[in-house]
Amino acid sequence: MGTMADAAAAVGETVRELREAYEGGRTRSLAWRQAQLRGLLRMLKEKEVEAFQALHVDLGKHRAEAYRDEVGVLTKSANGALQQLGRWMAPERVKAMKDASSIQLAIPLTLEALTPVYRLRRMQVWVPLIAWPATAQVVPEPLGVVLIFSCWNFPLGLSLEPLIGAIAAGNAVALKPSELSPCTARFLADNIGKYMDASAVKVVEGGPDVGEQLMEQRWDKVLFTGKPHHPQPKHSPPSISCRAKREPISFTCVCFYVCLTTGSPRIARSVMAAASRHLTPVALELGGKCPCIFEPMGNARELQISVNRIIAGKWSSCAGQACIAIDYVLVEERFAPILVHLHSSCLINMHVNHIHGFTRGYCIYISDMPFFVPVHAYAFARSEDQDAQGDAEEVLPGNGYIEPTILLNPPLDSAIMTEEIFGPLLPIITVKKIEDSIDIIKAMPKPLAIYAFTRDATLRRRIVDETSSGSVTFNDAIVQYAIDGLPFGGVGQSGFGQYHGKYSFDMFSHKKAVMKRGFLIELRLRYPPWEESNVTLMRYLYRFNYVAFVFYFLLLGLKR
């Protein structure tokens, strides 16, 4: 009890210090925000080797993968925020409307007549003419003290990417890294305070009990990017035998660590329930089953590139343990054998033959088997059938290692097609016509991403128009995550709230409307006593028909 009380007291003290730092006002200045971003960049540069080591110990990531998916992406994001920060912080003037009727008397030229795009963008309208003289602005201001829960599978990237936006927006920040990636959590706790303002940016380590204590506090925003279950790697895998295409192959395993995100919605509901006590706004980045529609390309080169990108989109990032990884593929029946063949051969070539000294084949380790087995029961039950590329001992070996496995046409109501896989199993669902894939996607919860490999412009348009998802990417996978100009976030059960680039800044900012009026013009029609003429004049005003308003107003004056 004493330990729990001490931990709760420590959490309360952390929040008090953050609140004090924010209320003191120093986090609001441009200089402070720039200093924090520069400090973060220095940490990423000077502590790069330590970061690689932490990611390797926690997740078995090669330094190239760690740089591609985490350190490099963060360096890009922090540099981009540093370059654009002054522009993001500047008050936004109210933009001109496309319909120029609201400014007929102020500007005799319609906006449609201003053909050059740059002139349209520079045109500013303060407020409707009837409010003149007046000015209007939208001023971004920091929300205050915010809390970020990060996830174990990209423990550095999912901690620091939203932190960049929160700091750029001028907030004080508490970062709760996942205890399931302990080395990376320790790396962050040891270094954040050395390179950034330790009184305004704090790392809080601990398990679920600490998370619950944090949610007892009042926050101005909470971002949750959590995956609840994660294996704890304890040793390197032994050499075992496996089969590719049902032929025996001896090889040395390349180890990855895998789990299943069975609890993300459950944990997210708990976070939202706790936040509701203080009316704290919450952003959730969850996941879901991200589909990939595959339509063979017109030539062999494009077909090979497409398959390479699908493999990378499924297995390349954290061995398939990514919320935006491809979850299943939809393909026409006639092309399924080609797709399976190309996947089998390319996997061996891409992921094994070019890995330092390893021979053919690679396996993936599942330590969190109690959570993995129930959802993947269909795969394990069918692993000896012709529909699964692999054998039972490889799909579910006794020592917990499995190899990448393709499942052909599992039932759509089976667990593997209703739960996020978050692992090395790839269902391939065949359809009569590729257009039928849209109906399958629409019948499932809205995913975080939809991928489609196709040259058909009509199909692309239908996917965009008829489906709903956090993002749609054509002819590639996962790369949209690295583009700061695109928002990253889900919809429906895949989450809500968007970040990356300026979207991160906006998520951690409040856009405050600011208006100033003069006293030159005052219309009595806005005050009682009411007359029918007041209603007529207001109709003209709300339709921005100032010419009719002026004529009617003058006519009333003459009558009186």
TrEMBL record:
InterPro entries: Ald_DH/histidinol_DH, Ald_DH_C, Ald_DH_N, Aldehyde_DH_dom, Aldehyde_DH_NAD(P)
GO MF annotation list: aldehyde dehydrogenase (NAD+) activity
Record Gene3D superfamilies: Aldehyde Dehydrogenase, Chain A, domain 1, Aldehyde Dehydrogenase, Chain A, domain 2
Protein name according to UniProt: Aldehyde dehydrogenase domain-containing protein
Assigned GO CC terms: cytoplasm
Transmembrane segments: 540-558
Coiled-coil blocks: none
PANTHER family in UniProt: ALDEHYDE DEHYDROGENASE, ALDEHYDE DEHYDROGENASE FAMILY 3 MEMBER F1
Domain Aldehyde dehydrogenase: 7-227, 261-514
Pfam families, A to Z: Aldedh
GO biological process, one term: aldehyde metabolic process
Entry similarity comment: Belongs to the aldehyde dehydrogenase family.
Keywords noted in UniProt: Membrane, Oxidoreductase, Transmembrane, Transmembrane helix
